[in-house]
Amino acid sequence: MSVTLHTDMGDIKIELFCEATPKAAENFMALCASGYYNNNLFHRNMKGFMVQTGDPTGTGKGGTSIWGRKFEDEIKPTLKHNTRGIVSMANKGPNTNLSQFFITYGKQSHLDSKYTVFAKVIDGFETLESLEKVPVDDKSRPLQDVRIKTITIHANPLADA
Fold this sequence. Notes:
Layout: E1 2-7, E2 10-16, H1 22-34, E3 40-41, E4 44-46, E5 50-53, E6 86-89, E7 101-104, E8 117-123, H2 125-132, E9 147-154
Antiparallel strand pairs: 1-2, 1-9, 2-8, 3-9, 4-5, 5-7, 6-7, 6-8
């Protein structure tokens, strides 16, 4: 399965690891399908590190899962933060996944075994590059609003955006 995030800066297509991380993938896909992520801000942006979204309040403190509670990590030794474009659940410690997620701007080995990697970017790296260049304040909040406008769900990861 794959989805395309249609953002204010362009499209980012990601492929989900449904078999390896079934709960994270189910949660993400259901939130996408319900429109939950529509108009969500990219509320945290750290050049060379990652960009984060998935909180409808835009504060970085909100969000919920489809189950209405935190859900457990799905840490897999074969899924690592080993390159640009890795998509992981954001959390506040072990087994605290809700709706927020982040996309890496490069290899981040120190995140391995702490965050559930559930997808990877397969197209739209130029959009990711544009996001990385957005100026931020001293708390890593973008100075301009950049949002996920809508999301398209694809059954085939190689389908057209």
